[in-house]
Amino acid sequence: MLCEIARVSRSGYYRWLNRLGKQDRDYDDFLLIKEIFEKGKCKLGWRQIQIRLYVNHNITMNHKKIKRIKIKYNLITKIRRRNPYKAIMKKTSEHRTFDNILDRNFNQIIPRKVFCTDITYLYYSHGRKAYLQTIKDIATKEIVSFELSNNISMSFVLKSIDNLKDIGILKNKSIIHSDQGFHYTNPEYIQRVKKLNLKQSMSRKGNCIDNAPMESFFGHLKDDVDYKPARTFNELSDMISKYMDYYNNKRYQWGIKKMTPVKYRDHLMTQLT
Length: 273
Description:
- By secondary structure, the chain is an alpha/beta fold.
- The chain contains eleven helices and five strands.
- It folds into two domains: 61 residues, no CATH class; 159 residues, Ribonuclease H-like superfamily/Ribonuclease H (Nucleotidyltransferase, domain 5), CATH 3.30.420.10.
- The protein is elongated and about 110 Å long.
């Protein structure tokens, strides 16, 4: 009579009763899974639940059953959100890389045509760290700009590129080469480079030889300057400034006709005029 009133078949009614019985059989397992799930701050998937059932309760449960109970009782796992900044980096072209235009063509004879740039760490005063950003003219070997900072912010890199305004760049012909570091792919840096009418070139990923002139310079600096005992940032800054003056004006190099970088620059300029 009740089946006729509800307009359901007898077989449908008994199937429903059977499912109720199964739900009752799942209930104790659900309570245990729910306890584990909530202790895990609702972040556990079936694998972690299965491990905890076995390790903490000596229960071996099939992963399909755990999945089914989670779905049946709406135990939704909170998935860790992706870092929004990384997502933006991948979805936009703001942080851009550039082709390796230079392609290790380090034998340049025209001053101000090709620049290389990079950042290195300088440890001083029992483990304190400073960051040195330099720009080198490949033809003359001259360090045309450098900035020292006690932090790795964008400001000192931008300042070093701004220093190029007054050195006579070959507009629309000069190249500035770097690695693919965060600073050099930064949209603000890219904009500053564009304003100077420079073309960006970048080393291939993991190829430090693509920027060998900078690696060579940093090697000489770290061999020549005893900067580690410097007690303060100002003391370190004074040491680096003196070395840059020495390197550009007093350090004679075999590869540039036994001249200093500044003298060799003047020599090349005379030949070009």
